[in-house]
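Fold Annotation — chain and its backbone

Encoding — discrete vocabulary of local shapes
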Amino acid sequence: MMTIKPGKQRRYLYNAPLHKKRKWIASHLEEGLLLKYDRRSVPVIVGDTVRIMRGSFKGHENKVTRVDVKSGYVEVEGVTMTKADGKKIPKPVHPSNLLITKLNLTDRWRRERLAGKLSEEKKREIEKEAAEQVRLMEEKKEEERRRLEEEKAKQIEEAKDKDRVVEPEMKPEEHAAEEESTQEKTEDVKKEEEKESQEPEESKEHDEKKKDLEAKKTRKKPKKTREGE
């Protein structure tokens, strides 16, 4: 970019391709890292520990959780802002306001880039630090996996407990009352059975009477004859 006009410079920064924008998201290294890697700044990636040097969160130090290449901003863990509805969301921070205090060395390509012109001793130190970071990352993933499995098992147990119906223990008084109620029920059932057994006999007698009445009605009466015939 050879122009000195601010409008053209802003237009170039806005319309730049992503592979160039990615390199511009860089922050200065802390003094110890600057001497160790012989570099002033490095592109920021997820997992780097940074310290905010300016703004309302000045002095806050935590890990980078997201890098937005398109907008050119990064998100730091614990840096949030509150919306009008009370919901908290991550607050974007420009990389120029950050200072890298610890590098994420789990990426092999990044290690090779950093250890380009360094001595063999420093290269070995970088590899050792990277191995330690990889180990810690795997342990963290394993803990997260176990936690998820425990939560899943707990949810399954709770669902089983809800489905299972547990009968409460009864007191002696309640037990006696229940026995009395069962005896009364059995007596009622016996009475009903006796009634049902008597009903067929009564119905038979009723049917016989009905048949007799019908037979009497249908029986022909003798015709009356006139006198003298």
